[in-house]
From TrEMBL:
Protein name as catalogued: Capsular biosynthesis protein CpsH
Membrane topology: Multi-pass membrane protein
Organism superkingdom: Archaea
Source species taxonomy: Archaea, Methanobacteriati, Methanobacteriota, Stenosarchaea group, Halobacteria
Similarity-based family: Belongs to the archaeal/bacterial/fungal opsin family.
InterPro entries: Arc/bac/fun_rhodopsins, Rhodopsin_retinal_BS
Annotated organism of origin: Natronomonas salsuginis
Keyword Transmembrane: yes
Length: 282
């Protein structure tokens, strides 16, 4: 059986199709050059990025700079684990599209593990940005919580097979959470970054994050999970992978490079007495 660029060797028993095993799915991923290359490219880049970031952060000493480094290094580490899960078939499955979907009644290869990756990695991106801008912890908590809600409702939208309308309902809820995140990045946090003295790099990273993150719901809507205007699983996977490369590794490199070169500014953020200052004794 061939489903949208992926040949699925699904076994039969008495004329009834059986669920494909992890091994079946893994072999089919390996056999699809477009799909497998979109995953292996991120495994390689995540591994190289992790090594590079460890080197870049080796001399950081201030608590805030080290916290930013800790959040940032988690981005490629989560990614490499996730992409290996996808390649192994562990976090990939067949989802039958509901009636009303362009591929209604057909089984589509769903990379649902990507949503778990985003649930763990995107809060690290927001944490790093929040620390860089020295935002209030309560505001940071709300934005990270909205981000997690965005990812989990996106996962629900991808996996629902009972109702086409409910897939889009969860998509709308996910986008609503996304608006909360965008509002913080575009409206609230820039003023905090200005006060912290990090507005220049924050503006660059904010623009990169907003532009690339907007790509994810667009890919979902146009790809096999949404309207299936792009019906190739491999093409959809490469679109997500390309966004991940920019939103994770390029983002993290730009952030750590700036933090390493401006550690005194980062360390002074949140300290009303300035860098290296200590409270006076009574």
């Amino acid at each position: 059986m061939i489903q949208h660029g992926v040949e699925l060797a699904v076994p039969f028993a008495g004329g009834v199709p059986l669920q494909a095993t992890q091994g079946d799915v893994m072999q089919q991923i390996r056999g699809d050059v477009l799909l497998s290359s979109s995953l292996w490219a991120n495994v390689a880049l995540a591994g190289l990025s992790a090594l590079l970031f460890v080197y870049m952060g080796r001399n950081l000493r201030s608590d805030r700079a080290r916290l930013i480094f800790g959040a940032t290094i988690m981005i490629p580490l989560v990614s490499i684990s996730s992409y290996l899960g996808l390649l192994s078939g562990l976090t990939v499955g067949l989802v039958e599209m509901p009636p009303g979907h362009a591929l209604g009644g057909q089984e589509v290869l769903s990379q649902w593990g990507r949503y778990l990756t985003w649930t763990l990695s995107t809060p690290m991106i927001l944490l790093a940005l929040g620390l860089l801008a020295d935002v209030d912890l309560s505001d940071l908590f709300v934005v990270v919580a909205a981000d997690i809600g965005m990812c989990l409702t996106g996962l629900a939208a991808a996996l629902i097979t009972s109702s086409y309308a409910l897939r889009w309902a969860f998509y709308v809820v996910s986008c609503t959470f996304f608006i909360v995140v965008l509002y913080a990045l575009v409206v609230q946090w820039p003023a905090d970054a200005e006060a912290a003295g990090t507005s220049e790099i924050f503006g660059t990273l904010r623009a990169l994050t907003v532009v690339l993150w907007l790509g994810y719901p667009i890919v979902w809507a146009l790809g096999v999970e949404g309207l299936a205007i792009v019906s190739s699983v491999g093409a959809t996977s490469w679109a997500y992978s390309a966004l991940d490369i920019g939103a994770k590794y390029v983002f993290a490199f730009l952030l750590l490079r700036w933090v390493a070169a401006n550690e005194s500014t980062v360390g002074a953020a949140g300290n009303p007495l300035g860098p290296g200052a200590a409270p006076a004794n009574d």
